[in-house]
Amino acid sequence: MQQAALSVSSLAKSYNGRTVLDDVDFQVHRGELVAFLGANGSGKSTTLKCVAGLAEPDAGRIELDGQQLAGLSGRQLALARSTAAMVFQKIHLVPRRTALDNVCAGGLARVSGLASVSPMFFSRQLREEAMACLDRVGLADRALEKVGRLSGGQQQRVAIARALCQRAAVLLADEPVSALDPNAAEHVMALLAELAHEENLAVAAVLHQPELAIRHADRAIGLLHGSIAFNAPVAELNEKILHTLYSPERNAA
Ligand SMILES: Nc1ncnc2c1ncn2[C@@H]1O[C@H](COP(=O)(O)OP(=O)(O)OP(=O)(O)O)[C@@H](O)[C@H]1O
């Protein structure tokens, strides 16, 4: 099997002496959409945050596109990290800027000088690439619209286009559809699956709706109290497993 785009082993994290992640191992390959499931507080977001560098693991090994992050620093670390892009539930876009400018921001790690300071100086090449990314998510016709005027589902698609403009191999989506209505959620999940399958991206998405995982993901990873309790194709998810992951008795604080 080809090398995993994201490989995590023995990941551990505690907050204030309380274990939040314990010996977490998993891989995500290019071409697959993996859904992270589990009750509130089971450690899903912390897992993605450790991969993205937004939380510092206590132990463990994280590899992005074959490159181990531990031991890297400065520009090397920033470059390795830029292989993974994060798409959040609360969409981190600049509402008063156009969709196109927001998407261009995904490519800023590759530019220097004035272009990295103001959209006024974005190069034609960057704008063309951003436009292609907007086209990929079906929003080319809204490129010059201010993002604040777009719907939640459209904004999430702009955020995904920004991740594409970053040329990331790994897309980390933390509750990408939690704030969306059912139709928009279906649309965004279908887009994430399409990007995994057609653009050969590795997509890891935290979801609160197992039925969305079953419909759109290839594999599910279920977390229970910071440990992996399930890691298999979504076809193997059943009532018993979902009960284990979500039952109040097992998830009592
Ligand atoms: N910065 C932090 N400081 C202290 N505790 C934290 C911090 N971030 C997360 N935690 C705790 O770590 C545990 C796991 O949180 P995490 O957000 O990873 O869970 P989750 O599975 O994503 O939950 P949810 O579905 O509610 O988003 C929780 O008990 C949470 O309170």
Report what the structure shows.
By secondary structure, the chain is of the alpha/beta class. It has two domains: 1-83 and 169-253, Rossmann fold; 90-167, no CATH class. It is built from nine helices and ten strands. It has helices at 44-52, 74-81, 99-104, 124-136, 152-165, 182-198, 210-216, 239-246, 248-251; strands at 6-15, 18-28, 33-37, 59-64, 67-68, 84-88, 170-174, 202-206, 219-224, 227-233. The strands form two sheets. A six-stranded mixed β-sheet has the order 6-7-8-3-9-10, sandwiched between helices. A hairpin with a 2-residue loop joins strand 9 (219-224) and strand 10 (227-233). Helix 4 crosses helix 5 and helix 5 (152-165) packs parallel to helix 6. The radius of gyration is 18 Å and the shape is globular. The mean pLDDT is 89. Bound molecules: adenosine-5'-triphosphate. The site of adenosine-5'-triphosphate has 10 residues, from helix 1. It holds the Pfam family ABC_tran. InterPro entries: AAA+_ATPase, ABC_transporter-like_ATP-bd, ABC_transporter-like_CS, MetN_ABC_transporter-like, P-loop_NTPase.
